[in-house]
Design goal:
Number of helices: 12
Largest sheet: 5 strands, mixed
Bound molecules: 5'-O-[(R)-(carboxyoxy)(hydroxy)phosphoryl]adenosine, zinc ion
Helix content: 40-55%
Radius of gyration: 20 Å
Low-confidence stretches: none
Strand content: 15-25%
CATH architecture of the largest domain: 2-Layer Sandwich
CATH class of the largest domain: Alpha Beta
Number of strands: 10
Length: about 350
């Protein structure tokens, strides 16, 4: 079959992104404009500011993506856009741009689930195209979600676990803020990247035993994540031990917190992988980990060891494709287009779209 090219547009949170991807997995162009200068002074993402930022930046970002790929809108086979979940004032900026472009140029429009896009990105970036094959297990860890799923096919998911309270990225962001960590200039990932950097100079021992292990006391087979207790304990301990007064303590706390997070994730993943391997159904082909938090090198190496101990491959997209980007939306659009899943020009946003 003839290769197709799709434009992907993403404005669900604080990154304004557009990219053009070909169905053989080649990224023809990729443009991401963050909004660090808008949100860092506010201590986090402010939805109305983010929406304004998208309005200002998106036309230029789309033009740049087309120019870099050396194509025009007429060359595109479809236009894909994040329809949800995401911030209510932000999603319509991308969706309306995509609908108008598609309608004016008579192109198929594809509304994409943001988390589906994080999951399917692994099939664009692995060395074997369209691998991992379905079904695979995926852990999606981002600022808004902590989801463990079995992916049976495009649009066909079994949820295995979600979080009872905060997403892991949310807990990371709150902790980074409580530790007063500055975002790293020119690096994606905002507070999460700052926390990872701080932890490099520390070790977990000083605080490890003082942090609660989420949900360990409860039924050990409970398949749910919980991060709010850990986050609250960290914030309290930061005050009690006067952590901010000593840069070494800050690094040690960052390290202990990251360690507690990954131990909790590992514990749930182990249960899920053990259950999955026991089941007689089609064996899962891989463990895919994606979403902004999956760009963390420490988490990636711990998850690599876990996957190896279960003898299944770990597939993580490269860090810059784990955080929000347009290529993942374009790729999910390609997978949906090839499955015959196209939308009307009348679709609206779905800020709380369940997967
Ligand atoms: O997927 P994403 O870019 O946006 C959402 O869909 O939410 O994920 C953003 C989240 C934020 O919580 C950010 O702090 C976290 O991913 N993050 C990281 C790192 N880079 C981004 N967390 C830990 N370590 C990182 N290197
Ligand atoms: Zn995301």
């Amino acid at each position: 079959t003839r290769p197709v090219i799709v434009l992907g547009i993403e404005t669900s949170c604080d990154d304004t992104a557009a990219a053009i991807v070909r169905s053989d997995g080649t990224i023809l162009s990729e443009v991401v404009k963050g909004q660090q200068s808008l949100h860092e002074p506010m201590g986090g993402v402010v939805p109305t500011l983010a929406s304004r930022g998208h309005s200002e930046q998106l036309p230029g970002v789309i033009c740049q993506a087309l120019a870099q790929a050396q194509v025009t809108v007429d060359d595109l086979d479809a236009i894909a856009v994040t329809r949800g979940p995401g911030l209510p004032p932000c999603l319509p900026v991308g969706l309306n741009a995509a609908k108008t472009l598609a309608a004016v140029h008579g192109k198929p429009l594809i509304g994409v689930h943001h988390m589906e896009a994080h999951a399917l990105t692994a099939r664009m970036t692995s060395s074997l195209r369209q691998h991992p094959a379905f079904p695979f297990m995926t852990l999606l860890i981002s600022g808004g979600h902590t989801l463990l799923l079995t992916v049976n096919g495009v649009g066909d998911y079994d949820a295995l676990a979600t979080t009872l309270d905060n997403a892991v990225g949310e807990a990371i962001d709150k902790t980074a803020r409580a530790l007063e960590l500055a975002w790293i200039k020119g690096r994606r990932g905002g507070p999460g990247a700052a926390l990872e950097q701080a932890a490099l100079n520390g070790s977990p021992e000083r605080y490890e035993q003082l942090l609660p292990m989420p949900m360990l006391q409860r039924n050990k087979s409970t398949m749910a994540f919980s991060f709010s207790g850990l986050k609250t304990a960290v914030v309290r301990l930061i005050e009690r031990d006067n952590v901010l007064a000593d840069p070494q303590k800050v690094s040690d706390m960052a390290s202990a917190f990251q360690t507690a997070c990954i131990r909790h994730i590992e514990q749930k993943l182990e249960i899920a992988l053990r259950n999955e391997i026991k089941m007689a159904g089609k064996p899962i082909s891989a463990l895919v980990v994606s979403g902004g938090v999956a760009s963390n090198t420490f988490f990636r190496s711990r998850l690599q060891s876990l996957a190896s101990s279960f003898d299944i491959p770990l597939v993580c997209p490269p860090p810059q494709l784990c955080t929000d980007n347009g290529a993942m939306i374009a790729w999910a659009g390609i997978e949906r287009l090839q499955a015959g899943l196209v939308d009307d020009y009348t679709i609206t946003t779905l800020p709380k779209w369940p997967i």
